[in-house]
Amino acid sequence: MVAVAILAAGRGTRMKSSVPKVLHSLGGRSLVERVLFSLEEIKPERIFLIVGYQGEEVAETLRSRYEHMEMDASLEFVTQSQQLGTGHAVQQVIPHLQDFDGDLLVLNGDVPLLRPGTLKDLLTTHQEQRNTATLLTANLSNPKGYGRVFCGTNNVVTQIVEHRDCTTAQRQNRRVNAGVYCFRWGELSTILPQLEANNDQQEYYLTDVITMMQPVMAVDVEDPQEILGINDRKQLATAYEILQARIKDHWMMEGVTMLDPGSITIDDSVILEPDTVIEPQTHLRGNTIVRSGSQVGPGSLIENSEIGANSRILTSVISDSQIGAGSRIGPYAHLRGHAQVGANCRVGNFVELKNATLGDRTNVAHLSYLGDATLGQHVNVGAGTITANYDGEKKHHTTIGDRTKTGSNSVLVAPITIGADVTIAAGSTVTEDVDSDALVIARSRQVVKPRWRLNQS
Ligand code: UD1
Ligand code: CA
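Above: the input record for the complex with uridine-diphosphate-N-acetylglucosamine. Below: its predicted structure, written as tokens.
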């Protein structure tokens, strides 16, 4: 049986932020959410989240996110009202695990890059070797800030000393504590109450239990990047770089071409099909999917959207929208609010679509705003066509039938329904519904007065 305690009560002073550290976002997910994801292969019986600083907010944010994670155990929040150290934080679960006879996995809420396999291996080693405690360590070229792990023979840990409590000689040790531990709960629960706060910070350090336990084993992580702890914004940026490299390497191995990957960012919730090409300065976020054969960028931002197969997106911003196969978007198009573009459409320069549906083969090539509109197939929207959807109070809908052509600079005042095969003359302001197969001219006639010149004094 395995229970997990995630330490997330600290404020994170070094972040210099009003937001609790563990809620800071790393590639679209909070730090602590990422820690929860790293439990994927463990299937714990119980999961405790130790909260304190802005605990309600942390709990609230996580509760809603946790529903979408496929975990069997429910998330139990335990409050540590005063943040007296990592050892004190773990003491808070004692009343909740009175009769528990298994292992407790303790994780720091600010270590977001752990791979699920790493935790699984650590736990397996811990159980197979029958250790009292097993902790994850790494050899870092720059160990500054981490607790140093001192071992005897066979990786048996003798002591962990925090960076600030180390002597100059001790600081030479590059083996650091990752903040990831497996404990036999029976032993840990009797030792925890004996902790003392004899250190530079006057805190109860979890790391001090190690000297009171036997045997404790250190296991080196294969990839030291996984154990990066986030204490300040520089480390947050470093973590983001590592995460991005992982995500992009993955997709390139899956058959995605990236031009200048360093300038591209991709959330780990994004899905890319083989033979897509992602061009420089392109950012893919949230639940975005790009289907096979499409080319996105350069210079595009796609959020929570689906790009159909063989489409081409150039220098555009697309959010919460869907693009059908073989369509061309941009340059400089903005699609938002559930825009739905059919197959083989063209949405061109300086066109904004909001909550607009375009049937297949419909073109909106230049300088248009279509908001709250439903367009049929093969419609041609002339340059500068605008749906006037807002009357100052409410939004209204525009409907346009198949094969209709709107002239340049038409204004369609909603609510309005234009039938199929309609032609609207350039410069028209259309305020009334139009039946199919009609020509609409809604503008004043041109007046020309020959041989006329302004009298200038
Ligand atoms: C800790 C370890 C250090 C290790 C490093 C790895 C201790 C004493 N030190 O140091 O050996 O190398 O992590 O990243 O454990 N927290 C609480 N309640 C508290 C204090 C902290 O819940 O009273 C939480 C924090 O929110 C954070 C985590 O525990 O998520 C770690 O605390 P932090 O202060 O960042 O510890 P480090 O100094 O990084
Ligand atoms: Ca830390």
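Notes for the reader.
The pocket of uridine-diphosphate-N-acetylglucosamine (ligand 1) is lined by residues 7-10, 22, 50, 80, 83-86, 88-89, 108-111, 146-147, 160, 162, 176-179, 205-207, 229, 231 (CB under 6 Å).
The longest strand covers residues 175-184.
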